Automatic annotation (TrEMBL):
Keywords: Cell membrane, Cell projection, Coiled coil, Cytoplasm, DNA-binding, Membrane, Nucleus, Phosphoprotein
Single GO cellular component term: plasma membrane
Gene that specifies this protein: Swap70
Keyword DNA damage set for record: no
Predominant subcellular localization, coarse grouping: membrane
Protein name, as recorded: Switch-associated protein 70
Chain segments annotated as coiled-coil in the UniProt record: 309-530
Subunit structure: The SWAP complex consists of NPM1, NCL, PARP1 and SWAP70.
SUPFAM superfamilies according to UniProt: PH domain-like (SSF50729)
Organism ancestry: Eukaryota, Metazoa, Chordata, Craniata, Vertebrata
Pfam family, one: EF-hand_SWAP70_N
């Protein structure tokens, strides 16, 4: 509300200063209440404007009434153009130049409103050269002409030598004279002023004809669309007389391109919380421009930022205030150095006078010495030594003061160099302003590319999230199986190590049995040789029958029972024969 009050005060100031308050103060107050939709208070009005010595005779008497009974009750639900037109009507006749202008009265009114927007927040109102350059550049760009920087620099130099800026009426004369729009007809200049007025005053970010699909009948109708910081309004035509509806924008809205369908091309969709709108642009370029403009507007709403032109105006004001503060600080330091330099000069002059006085005294002493040379030789010598010491101290003081003076002069030279660097910085700022428009276009293109890439990245991000969720489940299952297999592997490794130990023990036992078998085989062979001489009783051990084995002197399983009976019969027969 503070910013709104400041904007209202600028227009009211023009109307106030153009009227005779004693005769027309009531009229101004009544009109303000009407256009600002503020309830009339006839009692307060008559009380304030009563015919006595306490009535308002200056703005000091009128401003308290204006603030208390009018401005503090403004809610913002009024027509700004109608308010400005009322103030313009009260002040234009008295202040507008009588000389013929290349612009119409309507265009002069719009320039006056733009002046109130760009002027400094101090009275009497003026527009500084930087804002004049900004406005003329906007008009030149809207006319499709080239900006003449050199021409404006000459004009700025001539302006700075006489005053700080221009009043509203001088700005109207400047634009109406055609000095910076040579070669352009009145219609072109009027269209440029209207375009800049729509952007800076009416906050129109973009406007144009497009086709809109109906929500009920689903038919396509051509409408004139007007984009503002928080709303898109559409009308039957560009005269804005027959309004058909609004699209309320907020941080939850989004805009996206649509493929061609139903014979319609260059389609895009505006999604809001309660409703969506299908729109068809005239060509691909217009489609992209509208998508980009709407997306930028939604982003500003999400960030809570003001419109770009208002933010740029605030930054320019802050930069001017910063440079002014730095310049004032530099001037203050220069004054301090100058004062210090003057003080040092006074001190040096005092020392010089002291030296001259000391020299005069020395000459007088010298004269006295010549007169009393014989009588006061000793005293003179003492005085002479004292005078030499005084002179030496004074010379040292002079040298010291001279050194300090040289240091201060060096600081003065350094500050002069800093002043030159500040001027160069100001020149760089002018160049930066020239590049501002190029950077803005580049930013617009980058924002467009960023918007497309952001949509694509969001799609990829969603797919990646789904893939990650599936992969996480599979990964968990595989991790469980891996843990089970690792535990089984550990058990198997332990069993394998146990089997390895058992195999080694069995192998050792096998080696021991093998050695014992070899030893037994050797012993058996020697016994075979011995027994071979005894009646052929020895035989190789072969698989025996399944009958029970007998135990003999040669060990188990040597003979079966039948073989033993046969052997016994054979022995008995041989024994009987031998007898």
């Amino acid at each position: 509300m503070v910013g709104l009050k400041e904007e209202l005060l600028k227009s009211i100031w023009h109307a106030f200063t153009a009227l005779d308050l004693d005769r027309s103060g009531k009229v101004l107050s009544h009109n303000l209440c009407t256009v600002l939709n503020v309830p009339h208070d006839p009692v307060a009005l008559e009380e304030h404007f009563r015919d006595d010595d306490e009535g308002p005779v200056s703005n000091q008497g009128y401003m308290p009434y204006l603030n208390k009974f009018i401005l503090e009750k403004v809610q913002g639900n009024f027509d700004k153009v109608e308010f400005n037109r009322m103030c313009w009507t009260l002040c234009a006749k008295k202040n507008l130049s009588k000389s013929p202008l290349l612009i119409s009265d309507e265009d002069a009114f719009k320039v006056w409103v733009i002046f109130n927007f760009l002027s400094e927040d101090k009275y009497p109102l003026i527009i500084v050269p930087e804002e004049i350059e900004y406005l003329l550049k906007k008009l030149t760009e809207a006319m499709g002409a080239g900006w003449q920087q050199e021409q404006f620099d000459h004009y700025k130099i001539a302006l700075n030598t006489s005053r700080e800026g221009l009043s509203a009426w001088e700005l109207i004369d400047l634009i109406g004279s055609g000095q910076f729009s040579k070669g352009m007809d009145q219609q072109t200049v009027s269209m440029a002023i209207n375009e800049v007025f729509n952007e800076l005053i009416l906050d129109v970010l973009k406007q144009g004809y497009m086709l809109k699909k109906g929500h009920k009948r689903k038919n396509w109708t051509e409408r004139w669309f007007v984009l503002k910081p928080n709303i898109i309004s559409y009308y039957v035509s560009e005269d804005l007389k027959d309004k058909k509806g609004d699209i309320i924008l907020d941080g939850n809205c989004c805009v996206e391109a649509l493929p061609d369908k139903d014979g319609k091309k260059c389609l895009f969709l505006i999604k809001c919380l309660d409703k969506s709108f299908e729109i068809s642009a005239s060509d691909k370029k217009k489609k992209q421009e509208w998508i980009q403009a709407i997306q930028i507007t939604v982003n500003l709403l999400r960030a809570g930022s003001p419109p770009p032109h208002k933010e740029a105006r605030q930054k320019r004001k802050e930069l001017r205030q910063k440079l002014l503060a730095e310049q004032e600080e530099l001037e203050r330091q220069m004054k301090e150095l100058q004062t210090a330099n003057e003080n040092k000069q006074k001190e040096l002059e005092t020392v010089r006078k002291q030296l001259e006085a000391a020299a005069a005294r020395a000459a007088e002493e010298e004269k006295k010495r010549l007169q009393t040379q014989v009588e006061l030789q000793d005293r003179f010598s003492l005085e002479l030594e004292r005078e030499k010491m005084v002179r030496q101290k004074m010379e040292e003081q002079v040298a010291q003061k001279s050194s300090e003076l040289e240091q201060y002069l060096q600081r003065v030279r350094e500050l002069e160099e800093m002043y030159k660097q500040l001027q160069e910085a100001l020149e760089d700022e002018k160049q930066a302003r020239q590049d501002e428009e190029t950077v803005r276009k580049l930013q617009a293109r980058l924002l467009e590319e960023e918007s497309a890439k952001r949509a694509e990245l969001e799609k990829w991000h969603l797919q990646q999230q789904q893939t990650i969720q599936m992969t996480e489940a599979e990964k968990q299952e595989l991790e469980n199986q891996r843990m089970i297999k690792e535990r089984a592997l550990q058990v198997a490794m332990q069993q394998l190590e146990q089997l390895e130990l058992e195999r080694k023990e069995a192998l050792e036992q096998y080696e021991e049995v093998k050695k014992k078998l070899e030893t037994a085989a050797n012993n058996t062979k020697s016994w075979k040789d011995k027994v071979a001489h005894h009646e052929g009783l020895i035989r190789l051990i072969e698989p025996g029958s399944k009958n029970p084995h007998l135990i003999t002197n040669w060990g188990p399983a040597a003979f079966t029972e039948a073989e033993l009976e046969q052997r016994q019969k054979s022995w008995k027969g041989k024994k009987a024969t031998s007898e």
